[in-house]
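Researcher: Predict the fold of FCD domain-containing protein.
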Amino acid sequence: MSEVARPTLSDALTERMLELIREGGHRPGDRLPSTRELSQRFAVTTPTLREALRRLEATGAIELRHGSGIYVGAAIERLVLPNPNMRAMHAPKLLDLLGARIVIEPPLAAMAAGHGTEAELTALKRVLADAEAHLRGQDAELHDANMTFHRATARMAGNTVLHEVVDSLLTVHAAEQQAILQIFDDRRRDYEEHLAILQAIEARDAAAAEERMRAHLVDVKTVIEQRLHHPPE
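Model: Structure tokens for FCD domain-containing protein follow.
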């Protein structure tokens, strides 16, 4: 029977840093004490402290700004975190990723139709206008706009945890999402499907928003599956 692993000094430091942030009432963007001050406070060497800081930075709990200092990260309050160590996905996993999105995102689109504010709708329209402006070969910008559209739609649903799930999937698998854009290879059609989703959300038609999001993702998954199994000659 293997021995239960004992917490390391870095583990303890990581937890003490989180306690410092929580008990101090710090919010994302707040500046924390310097490395020197933290080393003295916790009675550890600077290299040991830096190891703990790097671990916290990897999860987004803190942000290390060169020449500026240590700040509370935007992800400090997240419940769902992307895995920074995730490797590239192969074809079966790529289809699983799309399958997961088909389960999660359509109900969120329906919820967005009921919860979205006018300000959020205006922002979503701007995102699609940006996507439309990059349909002719500017794939990096188009990809960013497309992912922003899906993130923003999930955020409009009003469920923080589910929004974080979608955001994590899209963040960790950004390269795969770009590959999907290349394989799908119908940028105008992709844009028009996004536009149809937006129109349903704007009309407060939850059923149509859900169905259009599902149809869009199923359409993408079907094309990807066909082209992975039967690549064009």
